[in-house]
Write a structure and sequence with these properties.
Length: about 650
Amino acid sequence: MRRATTSSNTNKVFKFIPNKFHALKYGCKMSSQLNGITTKLRDLIEEKNILGLNNTVERLIRPTRGFEETSLVDVSKIIGREGDKGALLRILLGSESYDQNVSVVSIVGLGGIGKSTLAQLLYNDKEINNHFEAMSWVCVSDEFDVFKISMAFFKDVGGGDKKFKTLNQLQVALAEKLSKKRFLLVLDDVWNENHQEWERLQRPFTVGAHGSKVLVTTRKTTVAAAMDSVQPYYLKLLSNEEALSLFAQHAFDEQNFDDVNRKLKLHGEFFLMLGDKMDVYDRIEPLEKCHHLSFIREQYGTYKKFKALKISRRLRTFLVMSVRGISSWETFYISNKVLVEVLPQLKFLRVLNLADYKITHVPESIGCLKHLRYLNLSNTRITCLPEQVGDLHNLQSLLLSRCYELSSLPASIVKLTNMRHLDNSNTLVSNKMSLGLGRLTSLQTLSQVVIGEADEFKITDLKGLVHLQGRLSIKKLQNVKNALQAKEAKLQHKKGICDLELEWSYAFDDSRKKATEYEVLEGLRPFEKVRSLKILYYGGREFPSWVGDSSYICLTQLTLRGCKSCKCLPTLGHLPSLQKLFVERMDGLKKLGSKLLGLSNSYHGDAFPSLEVLKFEDMTSWEEWTISCGNIVKVFPCLREISMINCGKLDVVVINSIPSL
């Protein structure tokens, strides 16, 4: 009987073990085929999933969610978390005084780390059930639907199956159920970062008794902040012993890893994640056959902890992770000996992530990593890159975002013909960009280009970069000589660019030619599906007709800043999807009239039909704003926020009623 059980458990293990174990069972031929498939899939995964390049694109792709969790839990299968449960019990049951009756407690941690399980333990705890008069569990996941969440809460607190046509009716009824009751609401797997949505949801909560709590589980600190959470509770990784016990339980139906046959060898294709101690590799032997390595950034920096990697000759992925969110200014220590002595030994490395470390320079030995495809140096303190970067002929992604001290790129970068993604956003790469960068015709991401003179990057170098997508910022446009050069950039044919920034120098001197800058801007007309457009420090007297053209049906945000020579704004009222309009530092503008709306006998629609936010700032010469359109059309029908900051001379404001305000 015992033998049969062991056989069953062995089959369980085979389901989770990579192809090298299957090779032992099915023979060399099958192993070869599976290895070939695995290699191809791994290449695709490294490019698509590990890179995380969607950070530079406005449209975010969220990670795949797990199954919807309920409040039920099998306590007998929970390992660890006793300390976490105790700490959170004290918070939830505490009698601390807050200004409001309801306080929000958030559990923040990596996906799969056990946030929902911990919340389930708390929800089913006897002390919790005795303390709170009303309780509800809602799995939120992808869509933060205020109506659905409120309805689920209403049913759980005794509201039954009553139907409501409006959110107001529902929340009034919910408030009646919660009145003077101490309640606990668990919102599991929350992704919403919109504070206004949270404000809408919590309106009925204020009538609850003092000590009511909302418990939130989320992967993101920004979610906790948006929900006005008290100090987030960061859930740490399980200890090595707890993790092994959890593995033993799921794989072998054993509660203790010591009961499992330790002769089981785990070879090759595992993605090894290091916990609190580097000696964890002793449990997964041999380390030299490990291909993919991940470790917690906050816990690794000294040479001693990385020294063991010298024997890992086959390592392909060197990926740092973080238990909590990283602020844009926060960096961590790593020994220079790791960069100089350890990394050059990893000859087969394909993915190298050193983001958020206090690195001041990249060693020349980086050129030895011939197989490298992904290099992330974001938010480091490097001032330059060595010319040896040009020897990385297989490099496809180079991420330099938030390297605030990086002032230039090496000339050898033009040799990286396989490059697809170059993120140099928020850097000082403005002194010089390499001539010939336009030869990197496979580029899909190029966050920022700086137009130079003579042997530097030219606007015409953009011509061959037909695959660009996402965000593109073009700086120092005063160096473009004529409209012909601007048109050669062929922005109108770059269908993948959704966020475009066009910037001239903020210094307005005698070298600026107003007529030329008008022609240049006219030649830089983007593709009609652009979603966000910024025109900064433009020196022309007026804007070309394409700015505000109704054909830009996807444009949702427009910023006009520092265009000091313009005495009027373009006609923008026809833009059908424009939601946010920012006008700043337009020193030449004195009067603003109905021309902005674009009303005429041939146009019968609403003016600014989708505009929600309108902001004027630092308009030091602006004196009058008059809009008269009669009663035929609606003006700003969706406007919910309007602000005028530092507009000291504005004395006359005549606007017909705005329906939404």
